[in-house]
Amino acid sequence: MQYDGVLFSVNTRRESPQKMLGSAIRERRLELDVSQEKLAELVGVHRNYVGKVERGEQNLTIESLVRFADTFKCRPSELLGEAGL
Amino acid sequence: MQYDGVLFSVNTRRESPQKMLGSAIRERRLELDVSQEKLAELVGVHRNYVGKVERGEQNLTIESLVRFADTFKCRPSELLGEAGL
Questions:
Q1: How does pLDDT run across A74-85, given as a tens digit for each residue?
Q2: What residues of chain B lie within 8 A of the CB of A75, using their CB?
Q3: How many distinct structural domains can be found in chain A?
Q4: B33: which of B2, B8, B23, B84 is 20 to 30 A away, CA to CA?
């Protein structure tokens, strides 16, 4: 059976945007040296929410992204850029 | 009655992020010179959705933002930056 030489890549062009953003938020949190629970308190969200976001299980809205960015005292576009998006 | 000199400003620090992003998406669409209906087709969303997004009535998710950015062939962080976010 002749393949056309293009390996079928399970990975799409990028990791899921949610996973990429989750990693960037985790990095920012670790830089702040705070727990997920403390970050949740600072952002004003449920403490489990931060864990889900960091694991890439949450499709954040722009409003939530703005709240995280405000907490990290950076611009939302900056946080997305750090995520590689 | 003595005011403390600080004018109560209805506008918060910024317009709503949804409105700011909606304007940036509208600008990109007009640059492409396509209708809302055509953009909806390109992005793969319902045609009314683009109107709601442009009017700032839709709190986009990151996944939706990525789809608009991919359609405009720019990075999601770039689109947010153009929105002033």
A1: 999 999 999 999
A2: 80-81, 85
A3: 1
A4: B84
